[in-house]
Amino acid sequence: MAVVREFALPDLGEGLTEAEIVRWLVAVGDVVAVDQPVVEVETAKAMVEVPCPYGGVVTARFGEEGSELPVGAALLTVAVGDPSEGADPDTDGTGPAGAADPTGSGPAGVRAGDGDGGVGAPVRGGEGDSEGSGNVLVGYGTGAPAARRRRLRAAPLGTSARRATEAVGAGAGTVGAQREGGADTAAAATATAVAGTATTAGTRGSAAVGGGTSVGASGGTDGGTSGGTDGDAQTSGRPTPVISPLVRRLAREHRLDLGDVVGSGRDGLILRSDVERAIARMTVASSDAERSERERAKAGTGPSASAALAGSASSAARGTVASPERQPSAPVVGASGALARGGGLAGAREAERIPLRGVRGAVAEKLSRSRREIPEATCWVDADATELLAARAAMNAAGDPKVSLLAVLARICTAALARYPELNSTVDTEAREIVRLPEVHLGFAAQTDRGLMVPVVRDAHLRDTVELSAEFARLTESARAGRITPAELTGGTFTLNNYGVFGVDGSTPIINHPEAAMLGVGRIAERPWVHRGELAVRRVVQLSLTFDHRVCDGGTAGGFLRYVADCVEQPAVLLRTV
User: Which of 54, 188, 454, 532 could form a disulfide with 443 if both were Cys (CB 3.0 to 4.6 A apart)?
Assistant: First the structure.
C-alpha cells in the first residue's frame, strides 16, 4: 500500500525563517523523482528551486503562488511506494491512522483503504527511509531522520456542527476533488467550510445583522448551545495558531488581537498575509467610518443610521476577517494621511503601502544595522583614468577573452588590500577584537530587477584579471536571472561598488555589514586636467573609500586610497606586485 509523505519547507540556511512561493514546478497528479525540483521560492537572499527528497505521485500542494510559508510548513504531499522498515504500522491504511480524520487536522481529501487506489495517511519522512535523497537540505538528510513538527489541531466541533460539516464535505466532493487533482488546496478549503458551518450551527437562534453571521463566532456545543464572543474558537482551551515570531510582532505593533484572525494556512495557521489583511481592513474601516460620519453630519442624517454604521465599523475594526478566497482586496490608507488622522481635507489621496520584505527587506535590515553599529568615515580623490583605459584596450586587443573595467579595478583592490590588510577585516563586538581575514572575498554591487544584490567572488586575491572578469560576468548573469544561491551572496570581506554606471560622480556608500570598508567608483568623464604641466582634456574618475574607523585611522585609509589612485593613473605601478 502506498504511503503519503509530507514534504515541509526546509531551512534554506542563513537564518531564513520564511519564503515566498514564486512558481510551482509540479502539479497534483504529477510523478516526481527523488531530488527533483518541485517549487521555486524567493527568500530574503535569493531565488531557490527546492528539491523534493521523495519520489512518487504528488497528491496535494499547499500554498498558492505569491503566498508566504514559514519554514516547517507543509509544501506538498507525495504518495511513495511500500513503507520501509520502522514505519508506523498504523499508516498502512488498515488501522485507525488510515481512516479519514474527522477533526480535519490532517490534509483534507487524503484517505486510505477505500479500494480504489487510495493512499494512506500523511507521514513525515525520516525514520527508516529506504528512498533517501542525495540533495541534503537542512532538516532533510540522506540518512538522518527528519525533525517532527508539532501539529496545531482545531477545537472539537459540536454534534450539530459535525453533522453539518459532513453534509458540506459530501456535497462539495472534497475527497473527489483532491483525488482528481482539481484543487491544490483542498485542506484549506475544507477547513474554511468547517469554520463556516460551525459558525452557523453555533449561532442559530440569534438575530443576524445584514443577513449573515460573523466568521469569527465560535462553534456550538453538543447540545446546540450558541457560542460565545468572536474569536472564541481561536482562543478557548488552545494557543493561537501562530508559529512565526514576525507575525506576532506585526500584530503586536498594530495592536491586533490574533484571536480574532482566521488563519488561511494549513490547520488554521495564521500567516503574515492574514495579519496584513486584517490590519488593512481595520484601517480602511476606521477611515470609512470617520468619513461617512462627517458626511452624515453635514447632511443631517438621523442617529439611527449613524449607530448602525458605527456598529459595523466596530465589528470590522476588531480584525475579524473572512477566508482569503472571499475577502476583497481593499486599498490601504496611510496612517500619516489626512483621512487616517481624522482631518477634513477633501479629496485626499490614499497612500500606497509596500511590504518591506524579500530582498528589499533584507537590504533595509542590513543597511540599518550597519548605520547603527559601524562608525564610518569617507575619503575621496579624483584620478586620471586615461592610462588605465588605454591599458585595458591593449589587453583586449590581444584577443579573447575580453576583460572588463570592473575586473581591472578589482585586481587593483586586491593588490591594495595586500598592502593595507587592516581594511580586509571585521570587528567582533562581543570579544572586543578586530579580526583580520587572510582571504579576500570580494563583493560587488549588482542592480537587478529584484533590487540591489552583492554577489561575492571567492578568493579574489588568487585570481588574475581574466579570471576575475569571467567570475563577475557569471555572478551578474545569475543574479539578474534569479538563479544565484544564498551562498554566493554572503561571506564577503570587502566590497567594490561601481556606482558610475548610474551616471553619478561620487557617493558616500554604506558599508556592507560586517565588512570594514567599501571602495566606490564614479563615472569616468572627460574633464580639463593638468597633464605634464599642460592643460589637457583627460578621462577623470572620482574614487571614494568608506571605512570602519574602529579598524584603522585616517592614515591607513588615505594610504589605501592613494595607492588605488596611483594604479589607476599609472597602471605600471601594479606590475611591482605581479
Answer: 454
